[in-house]
Design a protein that fits this description.
This protein is an alpha/beta fold and about 140 residues long. About 40% of the residues lie in helices and about 15% in strands.
């Protein structure tokens, strides 16, 4: 029970950080979670992805993360959430994404943590791959 309570608290903190990142305290209107769309990136191998994935998530194998972010235009007010099996590969993907200038990107951790976050996001606010445009 304590572990689940901790996980719920952690997810609440993560979601709060996602929404307020990049906004100053002096802003007249504080942004709300409802103002954003979400891009879910699964940083696992194709075999792992096929064994189970979140609806509308996009598979980006670890070795293709930098290429993905370098060749896609991410819509404004989109929060990018990375996850993998345990959080390690998505942590490395976070470093790569920020290295190419992506700001609203966060590591959700593993599948278990992502499930809790996924349950708090309305499915109609998840950006599908066809909503992304190539930069080239």
């Amino acid at each position: 029970m304590l572990k689940q309570s901790y996980l719920t608290l952690l997810v609440g903190v993560i979601l709060r950080l996602l929404v307020t990142n990049g906004y100053s305290a002096e802003a007249s209107v504080e942004p709300k979670l409802e103002d954003f769309s979400f891009l879910l990136l699964d940083i696992r191998s194709p075999e792992e992805y096929e064994s189970g994935y979140f609806e509308k998530s996009i598979i980006v194998p670890p070795e293709r993360v930098k290429e993905f972010f370098s060749t896609r235009r991410i819509p404004e007010k989109t929060i990018i959430i990375l996850y993998c099996l345990t959080g390690s590969r998505s942590g490395f993907a976070l470093i790569q994404a920020r290295g190419v200038g992506i700001k609203n990107v966060y590591n959700a951790g593993g599948l278990r943590e992502m499930q809790v976050i996924y349950n708090k996001i309305a499915p109609n606010r998840i950006v599908a791959v066809d909503a992304l445009t190539d930069t080239k």
